[in-house]
Amino acid sequence: MKELIQSVYRPQRKKKIGLNISQIYKQSETYFFSNARYALLEGLKILQAKPEQKILIPEFICCHLLAPLNILGLKILYYSLNQSLEPTAPEHWPKADYIIAVNYFGVAQNLAPFKKYCVQNQALLIEDNAHGFLSRSEEGSLLGERGDIGITSLRKVVNIANGGLLHFVRDDLKKLAKRHFIQPLLIEPSPLFNLKLVLKSMIATLGAKEILGLININRKIRKIVKGYEIPLGSEIDEYEIGEKINTWDINNFIGKLDLDFEVSRRRKLYLELGNLFSGLPVKIIFKD
């Protein structure tokens, strides 16, 4: 377990490659946010989403994605999935204005039924790529750039306290974004942000028992700094978007990442996890 934790939180190599987000995501207009849920909220606002409109999402979904939908008052409809996390019965999906396709755990979802649905219903396709920073489809397309708009969460993949991306892919939506969008102010990391990075680096050298203690310490630090502890999860989470954290200079961080090393690290980690679960009564959905 200790070695596995180290492989997850191992510090990134400080290889200056000079790339920024626009050089990675070349097919879209991409903007920074503190979290992907805020990126989705802003994207839907720019698309002028209205309370009477409907959005179709999978039954298996993170509660945080529901928050921006509830804030805008959209009517949420659901489609079902099979045990391989693929959509079922797309020919029977109800009509909606927007549909969300999820790249579960950073693995490319087949978008063919979603794109067919969008043509038939004049709907907009939103690619939820929260776990897929740097991931690609089998055809080589970067995930997050295959729908009309997309969202990606950097902090779910690399060792960073916050960072979400909003991608506008369709040409007319790129123009719309440029007219209506103002890039959030980039600021230096806060003391709380730096403290989180210290805690993460400490986690890399500890075992499971010590980690539980650090989690409790983190809650106490939040109480001292903010006046309240990190709230526990509850059913109300889907109606609240949570605390907004200002975005810092993500391009500076990306410029110091060795992207090839990062991709290799994650592939290796995935195989290690597969070996860890081999022999257990579980189904491995994605072999590699």
Give the helices and strands, then pairings.
Layout: H1 2-9, H2 21-24, E1 29-33, H3 36-46, E2 54-58, H4 63-71, E3 75-79, E4 98-102, H5 112-121, E5 124-129, E6 149-153, E7 164-168, H6 171-180, H7 191-203, H8 208-226, H9 250-254, H10 259-277
Parallel strand pairs: 2-3, 2-4, 4-5, 5-6
Antiparallel strand pairs: 1-7, 6-7
Helix pairs in contact: 3-4, 7-8
Word description of this protein:
The chain is built from ten helices and seven strands. It is α/β, with parallel strands linked by helices. The chain has a seven-stranded mixed beta sheet. β4, α5 (112-121) and β5 form a beta-alpha-beta unit. The longest helix has 19 residues, at 208-226. The chain is globular. Mean pLDDT is 80; it is low at 233-238.
SSE ordering: HHEHEHEEHEEEHHHHH
Total helices: the number is 10
Structural class: alpha/beta
Main sheet? Answer: 7 strands, mixed
Helix content: 25-40%
The fraction of residues in strands falls at 5-15%
Low-confidence stretches: 233-238
